[in-house]
Amino acid sequence: MRITKRTNIAVRLLMYCAAHPGKLVTKNQIATCCNISENHLAQVINQLSQLGYLHTQRGRNGGLSLAKAPGDIRIGDVFRSVEANTPIAECFADADNTCPFTNACRLREALTKAAAAFFAELDDVTLDGLVCGNEALIAMLNPSQCNQDRLSA
After folding, report:
1. What's the angle, vertex CA 41, arms to CA 37 and CA 45, rounded to 5?
2. Spatial distance between the Cα atoms of 40 and 44, rounded to a whole number of angstroms
3. Is there a contact between 12 and 36 (Cβ–Cβ < 8 Å)?
4. Is the CB of residue 126 less than 8 Å from the CB of residue 73?
């Protein structure tokens, strides 16, 4: 199974925010450190704030932070929310499905079970579990380290 770029960005964004508890972080900081286009990032920030994962604050001293405790954010829920409109295969799409076997295909049933197992596995993973105690990740998400890496590249 392949996740979309949007979901990949969403998880990196959430990990960055979780690595900076109690602080407002900026879109520019995240984009620089996580190697993400600011345009793509802005779309994901908007979606995650609408879904209740992020708190955003506008203005000169603005930024964003987690709207929930990292232990309350299940990665399976994030994937489901962000991937909600992405069909796993063509036959799952309401539009543009040209597969003539859709009504008789057993692969579709197997894919449905596989996707359920995939999400069930991710339901056991919290944002806190990805970040807490992960010193290597915390070091990578340190804004000063990100800037040093960009300068040496």
Report:
1. 170
2. 6
3. yes
4. yes
Which residues, including other chains, have CB under 8 Å from residue 9's CB and lie 6 or more apart? 34, 36, 40, 41, 44
Two structure tokens written together for 87: 């069909």
Segment holding 68, helix H or strand E? none
For 48, the token pair is: 């995650």
Q: How far apart are the first and last CA of the chain?
A: 32
SS3 94: coil
CA 16 to chain centre: 11
DSSP state of 25: B
Q: What is the pLDDT along the chain (153 residues), one digit of tens a residue?
A: 678 899 999 999 999 999 999 899 999 999 999 899 999 999 999 999 999 999 999 888 889 999 999 999 999 999 999 987 776 766 676 677 777 877 788 888 888 888 889 889 999 999 999 999 999 999 888 866 555 444 444
The neighbour count for residue 123, using CB atoms within 10 Å, is 14
Residue 90 contacts residue 96 (beta carbons within 8 Å): yes
Which residue shows structure tokens 């309401």? 94
